[in-house]
Design goal:
2 copies of one chain form a homodimer. Chain A is 31% helix and 22% strand. The first copy, chain A, has a 5-stranded antiparallel β-sheet with strand order 1-2-3-5-4. Chain A has a single domain, classed as HIT-like (HIT family, subunit A, 2-Layer Sandwich), CATH 3.30.428. Chain A is built from 3 helices and 5 strands. Chain A is globular, with a radius of gyration of 14 Å. At the A-B interface, helix 2 and strand 4 of A face helix 2 and strand 4 of B. Strand 4 of chain A pairs antiparallel with strand 4 of chain B.
Chain lengths: 137, 137
């Protein structure tokens, strides 16, 4: 069955590209560097539903994004979460945090005033993060 | 070097037991079934700092807890997150969510009125979750 991205995820993000397992999306929130990794699988809602080989790919890809975004942005902390209370399609948030960011030290979801990128900002972010996808081995 | 649990994690939790890699703690919050897995390693703050074999253990243990707690509590959704903005010692939250719980559909951290367990409640929860640790293969 063909993979179909949830409409809400699609509406709230920019498409960056595909890793072997996951689609990479840039969250349209300019307050925090924030990507979402979506395993291109149908009808999965929980991480434990992945096969062993899918889990290996998932872990490799999430760790790659944690480490490469930490380096790219010189983070103070990386946050990773799979929640899925609103969007059931399995997806994982990878978020770069700084000690001076808008929500620190709280989780980003506690921040009530998220802003969207303007066009110039989103293009710059997309270019930077697409390079991480291109560099994935 | 001997593993030493962060004081804040210790203060906010009940000790359940140890898996091969992770210490298992019950979060002292009665609103949500909520455990914290802490790899028994010194000076790790990010998942990507784990060795390959540690990552394998970490993934196996987190997936085991996601699946076994989902079954135990008949969850509507499992949430998993590694944040670490307040407590830098690497740790992962595994939280059982229900469509009728106090914070649904928001992340639990958005809920302002968390309650602690009373002694009977905490003993019941500890017994249930310790059985999951004992059953781990």
């Amino acid at each position: 069955m063909e993979f179909k991205l949830d409409k809400r995820l699609s509406d709230d993000t920019y498409l960056i590209g595909d890793l072997p397992l996951c689609r990479v999306l840039l969250m349209d929130v300019s307050n925090f560097p924030w990507v979402i990794l979506v395993p291109r699988l149908q009808d999965k809602t929980e991480l434990f539903q992945l096969s062993t080989s899918e889990q290996t790919d998932y872990q490799k890809e999430t760790n790659y994004f944690l480490e490469s975004m930490s380096t790219l942005y010189n983070s103070h902390k990386m946050n990773i979460a799979s929640l899925g209370n609103l969007v059931s399609q399995l997806h994982t948030h990878v978020i770069v945090r700084f000690r001076y960011d808008d929500a620190w030290p709280n989780p980003v979801w506690s921040y009530p005033s998220m802003s969207r990128y303007n066009e110039m900002e989103s293009n710059m972010e997309i270019d930077k993060i697409r390079k991480l996808v291109d560099d994935y081995i």
